[in-house]
Amino acid sequence: MDLSFYDKPACAERRGRLAARLGNRPALIAAGASRPRGTHRGLHPFRAASHFLYLFGLHLEKAVGLWTGEGWQVFLPEPGPDAALWTGPVPGFAELGEILGVSVLATAKLQEALKPGTATLPSPDVETCVEQSTLLGREIRPGKLAAVDEPLADALIELRLVHDRAGIAGLREAAQATTAAHAEGLRAIRTGIRESVVRAAIEAELVARNMTTSFNSIVSVHGEVLHNEDHHFTLADGDLLLVDAGAETAGGWAGDVTRTWPVSGHYSPTQRDLYDVVLSAQTAAIAAIKPGRRYLELQGIAARAIADGLVGLGILRGDPAELVSDGVVALFFPHGVGHLVGLDVHDLDDLGDRATYAPGRTRSTDPGLKALRLDRDLVPGMAVTVEPGCYQVPAILDDPERTRVAKDRLRRDRLAAFRDVRGIRIEDTILVTADGHDNLNAELPKATSAIEAAMRAT
User: Fold this and answer.
1) Among the three residues 161, 196, 220, which one is the final residue of a domain in this structure?
2) Residue 181: its pLDDT value, please?
3) Are 177 and 248 in contact (CB under 8 A)?
4) Is 399 inside any structural domain?
5) Full residue range of the structural domain in which residue 340 is found
């Protein structure tokens, strides 16, 4: 068992803080199980559920953490007689209890340890939810909280929104690996290869560090497809390659960075112009990050900068503020400006807007805001991404109903000059600090001149 990433004091402190919030209310936290890959003999690598990982720090398959109202316990299945043959030796329950600092018992004893009114957080995994339902005698469904579960959810949201010392160290480790992986991807670019070759260079750097990806890598010349996970297209001169990729450390901490690189090694004038519009939007939004700032404001700052830029290039005409408020800018920038980052790349998304929107705030239906994943006031210790983009999405721009709002403010004749730009996105992970912010990916070039210089040096 790899313990190199395990921080026993941090996990103990987290459990203590959660216990103080729960009082005598019992709670159950499931680690989950490996998901099948094709057949029951083929399994995806196991990764513990993030709430369990936050509290116990280790990837213990099928484990359950239990707060009894008086103390913490962990329950695990008894290893089979041939377990060591197939998976290697593992600590016994007594040894594991010493490692974790809690008592470790067999799963067979869990049912008798449960108390009425035990809360839980539904696992994203349906099979684990079925097991939770059987244990607690009530229906547990992914994404659905019962009233008894809400205090547990709110307590964990409060704790996980602000990263502690160990969490910040994990995020920095993930950011460092992500930066190195992107640098390897940049070195791999050349015309005539598939996108998958660049992806392989990025992910090989992570594997060499005993890490994996925090999400499925996006490495695409079709950057107008926002979550494009195809990697079979061939890189050609004149293409822009959009790379959205991040590391996940052995301890589960996520990195998330996007860069948009010219396959030929230099941006065309039109590519440079639109790239600089997106970069100005990202720079302005990052500069605004400080404690007390409402994250929603970053969306407006980025959208306004994109409006200013598109008007300056003659693609749009009219008042930039109206272009944002009317939803015209959302035709080119149709997604939110970013999200939380932590033990998941979209941290706390399993708890939905309850976690990512402050109490009393609800998701807007406005075209430029409805996809925003986060609307909380920033505090020191939060980690967020800032990732504005500008895209020519045929499903949007070729739809008369969607573009009706633009009327004559969209100059299609001028837009045609930018046909060599499918999509541009620029993203960094930002830690909110006591006096402002810290860009965890500051070492990775993003100005056009710096990117071109880096590509010449490869």
Assistant:
1) 161
2) 98
3) no
4) yes
5) 165-456
Q: Same domain for 118 and 132?
A: yes
CATH code (residue 140):
3.40.350.10
- Are 194 and 97 members of one domain? no
CA distances from 206 to 48, 175, 212, 345 (A): 19, 11, 6, 16
CATH of the domain at 344: 3.90.230.10
Task: Please give the Cα distance from 158 to 354 (Å, whole number).
Answer: 11
Q: Which residue has the tokens 């830690």?
A: 431
Phi, psi for 20 (deg, rounded to 5): -65, -35
Whole-number Å distance between alpha carbons of 156 and 411: 49
171 & 131 share domain: no
Distances (CA, A) of 54 to 221, 309, 361, 421: 36, 42, 26, 41
Structural domain count of the chain: 2
Strands (E) located in 317-401: 383-386, 389-391
For residue 57, how many C-alpha atoms fall within 13 Å in the half-sphere facing its CB?
24
Neighbours of 362 (CB within 10 A): 8
Long-range (24+ apart) CB contacts under 8 A made by 209-213 are: 209/177, 209/180, 209/247, 210/250, 211/174, 211/177, 211/247, 211/248, 211/249, 211/250, 212/45, 212/247, 212/248, 213/245, 213/246, 213/247, 213/248
Q: Are residues 133 and 179 in the same domain?
A: no
Q: Are residues 207 and 272 in the same domain?
A: yes
Q: Is residue 2 part of a domain?
A: no
Same domain, 59 and 183: no
**Statement to judge: residues 133 and 206 lie in one domain:** no
Task: In whole angstroms, give the CA distance from residue 155 to residue 19.
Answer: 9
Instruction: Give yes or no: residues 120 and 184 share one domain.
Output: no
Tokens standing for 405?
A: 């709002």
Structure confidence by residue, pLDDT tens digits, 294-336: 999 999 999 999 999 999 999 999 999 999 999 999 999 999 9
Cα–Cα distance for residue pair 348/339, rounded to 1 Å: 10
3-state secondary structure string across 7-65: CHHHHHHHHHHHHHHHCCCCEEEECCCCCEECEEEEECCCCCCHHHHHHHCCCCCCCEE
Q: What would the pLDDT profile of 366-394 be if each residue is shown by its tens digit?
A: 888 999 999 999 999 999 999 999 999 99
Residue 418: name the closest of 448, 400, 392 by CA: 392
Smallest CA-to-CA distance from 301 within 290, 292, 312, 289 is with 289
